[in-house]
Amino acid sequence: MKAGVIGCGTISKFHVDGFKEAGCELAWFCDIDPARSKAYQDRFPGSKTTADYREVLADPEVSAVAVCTLTSLHNEVVKAAIAAGKAVICEKTLGMNAADALDMCLFAKEKKGFLSTGYMKRFFPALQKAKELLEGKKIVSVYARTYQPFPGLYLGDSSQQKATGGFLRDYMGGGVVVCGGSHIMDLLPWFCGLPAACAGQLDTVPGCDAFDRDANAMFWFENGAVAHFEAYWHEYRRGGFEQNGWDEEIRINCQDCAVTVNTPLWHKPENNAARVSFMDAVSGEYSEYRYEAVNSFTLHEIEEVRRIAEGKDPSVDGWDGYVADVMIDAVKEASKTGKKVDITFDKA
Fold first, then answer.
1. What is the distance, to the nearest Å, from the Cα of residue 10 to the centroid of all Cα atoms in its chain?
2. Which pTM was predicted?
3. Domain presence at residue 52
4. Which of 13, 150, 201, 217 is the residue whose CA sits 20 to 30 A from 177?
5. What strands lie across the sheet with 257-263, from one edge to the other?
6. 48-50 vs 25-30, strand pairing mode
7. Is 347 within a domain?
8. 30, exposed or middle or buried, with CB in 10 Å at 0-12, 13-18, 19+?
9. Residue 332 contacts residue 174 (beta carbons within 8 Å)
């Protein structure tokens, strides 16, 4: 299978490596900065480069593309790729907002296209184990946090913060609730089912309402579970189970057990494995499951390439991306209004 990568910034490395490990031939690299695409071409002799994504889509030999552009460009590129008959793996977040994501989902459905969203943390063996342990359990409450080191947001130059905040607002859809919290927004409904309501608050950089640096929320789920969520960009260099400042944990309390997962620093998943622990209220036993360190990006890409080849639906589809974007929008709306908001989903 031949694949192309559209957008060759930081995140593209993981999709390139994933396609390679999945056995794909990397045929095209597209970026408006020719130096970025050329760097990949040097790694993959025979591949082509372009600054126009339409050249990639015009190649009849390309079966799949990874869309790694700014989020503000996802809609245009994703729909063009699906219209061209390409299978699409799109980086998260799927859209700038829920309406943007839904538009892509509906287009993919209309065209019977393959649209996957890049929520790869589901593929850590520890999280797969957590999903297994929770099967059939009655979830009561969830405490989910992602504390991520981002020096300068509280102690740095406010003028630089304002510039960064404007970029995040205009091209990524928001600050920490989007860039830091979206993986939690994917995992919560994966574990708990769909949410029904939300209350939330965003703390922003003074003088820059576009730059949220701390997000707190409560979600009430259709099955009665309640989740407490925080995404926080902080100044600390230590903390978390890796002691590198990255502290991401989800604790899920059930009627007869508790499951806790921890994930490693997002761009260095090969350094440490995600882990899961299980406490059984009936037997009193405590178990901790540890696995080899793996790259969840690669595991996700391999699974989606397999499904593309077999003509199956994505494992993490556009709907999943839409659900996460709905939850993000709900936190923003609740923070803006100061009220609890109902969450509804359109059918995609």
1. 15
2. 0.97
3. yes
4. 13
5. 286-290, 275-280, 257-263, 247-254, 139-149, 226-234, 208-221, 195-205, 341-342
6. parallel
7. no
8. buried
9. yes
Mean pLDDT by 10 residues, the chain (348 residues): 98 98 99 98 98 99 99 99 99 98 99 99 98 98 97 76 81 94 99 99 85 96 98 93 96 99 94 96 96 97 99 99 99 98 92
Are 22 and 90 members of one domain? yes
Based on the number of CB atoms within 10 Å of its own CB, is 282 exposed (0-12), middle (13-18) or buried (19 or more)? exposed
Give helix 125-133 / helix 182-192 axis angle, nearest 10°. Answer: 30
So what's the pLDDT on residue 302?
Answer: 99
Query: How many domains does the structure of the chain reveal?
Result: 2
CA-CA-CA-CA torsion sign (190, 196, 200, 204): positive
Residue 8: which CATH number? 3.40.50.720
For residues 15 and 87, give the distance between their C-alpha atoms in angstroms, rounded to a whole number: 14
Host domain of residue 194? 121-292+326-342
Q: In terms of Cα–Cα distance, which of 1, 7, 10 is closest to 29?
A: 7
Are residues 336 and 202 part of one domain?
Answer: yes
Cβ 324 vs Cβ 92: under 8 Å: yes
Q: How far apart are CA 120 and CA 295, in angstroms?
A: 9
